[in-house]
Amino acid sequence: MHHNPIEIYNLSYAYPDGTQALNGVTVSIRAAERVALVGANGSGKSTLLMHFNGLITPQVGQVIAGELPVETKYLKQIRDFVGLVFQNPDDQLFMPTVWEDVTFGPLNQGVTGQALTHRAIHAMRSVGLDPDAYGSRSANGLSGGEKKRVAIAGVLAMQPQVLVLDEPSAQLDPRSRRQLIELLDTLPLTQLIATHDLDLALELCDRTIVLSKGRIVFDGATERVMSDPELLDQHALEPPLSYSRPYCQVEDAQKQV
Amino acid sequence: MILLHIGALHLADAEEQKTPWHRLTPRSRVLCALLLVFAIALTPNGRWWTWAIYGSAIAFIILASRVRLSVLLKRVAVEFVFIGVVILGTLFRGGGQVLFQWGWIQITTEGLTILGSVALKAFLSLLILNTLVLTTSIPALLHALAALRMPPLLVAILSSMYRYISVLEDEFHSMQKAARSRNLLRNPKRQRIIIGNMFGSLFIRTYERGERVHQAMLARGYQGLPPLAEVPKGGRRDILALTFTVAVLLFGQALYLFHAP
Fold this sequence. Notes:
The structure holds 2 protein chains of 2 kinds.
Chain A: E1 6-14, E2 20-29, E3 34-39, H1 45-52, E4 60-65, E5 68-69, H2 75-81, E6 82-85, H3 89-92, H4 98-109, H5 113-126, H6 131-134, H7 144-156, E7 162-166, H8 174-186, E8 190-194, H9 198-204, E9 207-212, E10 215-221, H10 222-226, H11 229-234, H12 241-244, H13 250-256
Parallel strand pairs in A: 3-8, 3-9, 6-7, 7-8
Antiparallel strand pairs in A: 1-2, 1-4, 4-5, 9-10
Helix pairs in contact in A: 4-5, 4-7, 5-7
Chain B: H1 2-6, H2 20-23, H3 26-42, H4 48-65, H5 69-87, E1 98-102, E2 105-108, H6 109-135, H7 138-147, H8 152-181, H9 188-219, H10 236-258
Antiparallel strand pairs in B: 1-2
């Protein structure tokens, strides 16, 4: 285990059409930390996430995952080290059956036979899916919450040390969202969660990074940023429900009495 | 051919039964079916007795696999319409005796023989392929193709077609619903234009989705070739079935080789 599994120095990225997606981002993620990455649409979250896994190699600056810089020659090791869960499970579940999808990553790593079966079963159990019941099913027939679980299992089966999730709670109903939060809470990995769901960020992450127009405008304790409505508003965000209505809280009610 | 079948996804759930045909490994089933199709297609036109023998072999397989005849025939009928349109042109070939003439259109014995032969070939091939697809699940079929040394990239393309066709169908239906909720049905001409546009945007979305799916594959260590899991080995039963198929094929061909009419 590394002390700082992900280090980013002065990272900038511009898309071919000239849009500056990231502008001088410097971040260090510590081991076993759970970090929320929040920001408005188009603030550069997804672009930043793709750097972690080497889907985009840095134009300016440097990204280090584990001990290796994100460069074309280390891509294989980096992708074994950092697992990326995509926002839309339909993009990620491309194999005909759930079992084949969960084993896709390990097979690419060269795991076969008994070890492969073991890994896939372990990954599916840890997201709460019964391998016998779900293994042979097609991804088409699953519900949104089940698809999300399979997508996470497919990444967990690769046994990464860092788990990066893009909008994990999008399109989930309250119960599936709750189950997801509980699931992420039990996973002992370094986690980076890009989300608009600030309630989820508040529940899961001690540390929050706010991105705005490709720059980091806040990096610190989640509770501090959530209780700063002006900062959030400035960057097109809103405090989570539990903070936005102080009159709902018991201690405030007592003050008024 | 598989694409056509996928259109009817609700029918594509292979019925898992315990029949002699189902006990063969998917690989042997695919091999038997493909051998038959090739033999049927490569037999020269007009060799009716050869096809009669192949047809009875296919009938035997259909009986042994206990597929529901109504389902099988319905699918063959739908597919035959497509093929029928394509092969209709062969009817008007020149050569042989002229049976019917109207202006420059003429029907000759040669044309009739070719049309009959090609139609029969197509019908028999469709029967066996549909039986195969009705009895073997698509993932098993894809594995079988991979085990038969079909190029892995081709198998990967087929498998993502299978995976995404229903996603695209859903997307198209939701677009259609969105259009209908804004009163699309007012006039038929406009409706055609809108549906054309929908197909266009579906095409672009497909492209974008393809890009995202590829990224998701790369993120899990994909290096250009899909990974292969182990395949079940065939037993004595499979060897027997294949031998039987090859024997039938050779017998059918020998009929005209040694007893030339």
